[in-house]
Amino acid sequence: MRIEVLTPRIEVAPGAICEVELEVFNTGEVIDTVTSRIVGTYPLAVEQRPAILSLFPGTSERLTVSFTLPPDYPAGDHVLPVELVSTVAPDDQSAEIEVALEVAPVVRASIDLVPSEMTCGRRARFSAHVANDGNTPLNLSMTGTDPERALAFSFDPVFVRVQPGQHVYVAGRTMGKRPFFGVPLARQFAINADGPGVAISAAGRVNQKPWIPRGLITILTLLCIIGLWAVVVTAGANLVLNRDKLTKTVPAAFLVGQQNFSGTAVAGSMTGTVTSTTDGKPIERMTVEAYLMRTGRQELQQSAATGADGTWKLDAVVPGRYHVRFSAPGYQEVWYPSAPDATTGGIVNVRPVTETPGLDVKVQGLPGSIAGAVAAGEQATINGLVTVRSMKDDVVGEVVALVSTTPDGAFTVPDLPTPATYQLTVSLDGFTDQVVTTALGGGESQVINTVQMAAGEGVLGGTVTSGGAPLGGVVVTVAGAGKTFTATTPTSGPVGVWTLAGLPTPATYVVTFALDGYGTETMALDLAAGETRTNVDVSLVSGTGSIAGVVKDTGGTALGDVTVTVTGSATPITTKTLTTGDVGAYTLTGLVTPGRYTVTFTLDGYSPVTRAVTLSDSGTATGIDVSLGKSTGAIAGTITAGGKPVAGAAITVGDGKVDRATTSADLPAGGYRVDGLPAGSYTVTVELAGYKKRTVLVNVTAGGVITTDIALVAS
Predict the structure, then answer these.
(1) Which residues of 510-546 are buried (b: 16+ CB within 10 A; e: fewer)?
(2) What is the pLDDT of residues 495-542, one digit of tens each?
(3) What is the CATH number of domain 109-212?
(4) What is the DSSP string of 508-559?
(5) Cα–Cα–Cα angle for 227, 336, 288, nearest 5°?
(6) Which pLDDT tens digit goes with each residue over 429-469?
(7) Which of 314, 382, 529, 634 could form a disulfide with 455 if both were Cys (CB 3.0 to 4.6 A apart)?
(8) Which CATH architecture has domain 2-103?
């Protein structure tokens, strides 16, 4: 038995039907019947046409072997062994042939959040379940976002590689400021996994419990009301039962002409200023209370609050001896002039119709704190240093605290004197110091916004050689972080040495080395924050071969910006077709000859094409021209109502997963068109006020425009 393969190479997508055409020759001396099967590490069920192939001696006939690739069949180039077996002499009359199979990559991934809703305090933990349902490995970067930008996220690991058919669990944590009191605060967020050609996300929600729940506030309010009622009743009873005894009498003549006499007619007043002991600034809204000293007790007579300049005044104060108390949330209580209680405080004498000025006091705030978090791009572990300095009148003072962040970037600076203004300097290896200024009120515990670190600049460098000798004139291109940098190795002095400084970090860079007459080398390098790598050494292979041609679409129009990739050498060589001048033309040089190469042409919106090219000793292959067909189709047509084209009709085109909406136009009257549709079945639904909704089924083919006119009927 002898076999000739009529389709030696097949380009196919997973899940599609593949067909291999063979010419089978019966070289035996008897009538033979042939069956086929696929062998190897990935066996597939096959069908053949004709189902039974009978051959007379010395004759041949074509045989078509078809099979379907499973959806998870790995992307890339494969060799598929096809075995044909004789039913007459299976041990002797059998043959095996190999078919080159190029499987297109299919990116299909999903992400789930477990749990998707969490109730927590400041922090919550979750797990992101990433599944790769495609046929090519995925390199994904994990990030988290929330609309309020109130949450910080961390992942372990941040970067994951998911093989086809593999499921990966990524541990995540979110952290945000917790409400002080009230009801739980719901925050929506999204977990994202992004990579080349894939962007997936899952939504979640955290319900942050308050420090003091609403129920406890209600109970405390009721207790305060009951306590206040008890105080009022007790004070009333004491007022009735413990009146001072009269010790003096006033002659009647004293009141002659004083029919309108009242306490305010002889009242005095008090004034003063309240300032802070830490920075000397006035304190606003400090409560000032004057207590009249009586036998065995003291009574609250007047109260007021300080203004924006720290000053206060008590009017209509009954003459007498007083203790004056100063208090406010976040501050230590002071009794004039600087005592912690009334028994050790001074006495203020208020005389009739006289102002008592200069009752100035200084108060000390309760200890405060500053908390926050540090983020450094994609860097997972953060061991930063926070230096805290005091500030007064915009002048930076001495260091008052020095704290380190936790590995996830969180930090807290406790026991800070208040009120005061502080400057925080955040330092992290490889990053530029960040400075934050914040003011603390009395006893305040403040959470500042996340400090975003700006990475220091990185450096890449090395030596380019060929055959062990330094190579000058090589153009080194470094692309990444949204920028492109270039350098050329010197031809004298330090020949072959290159250095590129000032690179943004952390980032991943694609470094390309090119020189006419040599094969191009390309590599991907990661630069950590502020990292310097000067050991990037490469060796270029001398080559003289070239491949050239033109890329067009199926209509004969030249296509620019098509990616052309040559494989078969140590490193793939890539270029793009011209977009100006000789549009669609390309040339790839620096190929080792003789040699066999595979040239692949790709462009968004078009189906990729692969060609095999053999370079002889002459080293030149021209006229390698290809045509790319559209990978998507379109639906177009006219909407009519009552027999006339109508504009403004709502049109929805869907495939059960994604809906695309448009509206019929005025010009052309009633016309519509929806482009960019992958091949498959779609429903076209048309709605217009006063007419019945209508839905039709349309099958779209790649590169085709399906004309679908729809007539609406009045409702």
Answers:
(1) ebbbbbeebbbbeeebebbbbbbbeebebbbbebbbb
(2) 999 999 888 887 888 898 888 777 777 888 888 878 889 999 998 877
(3) 2.60.40.2310
(4) EEEEEEE-TTB--EEEEEEE-TT-EE----EEPPB--EEEEEEEEETTS-B-
(5) 50
(6) 878 888 999 999 999 999 998 898 877 788 999 999 987 88
(7) 529
(8) Sandwich (2.60)
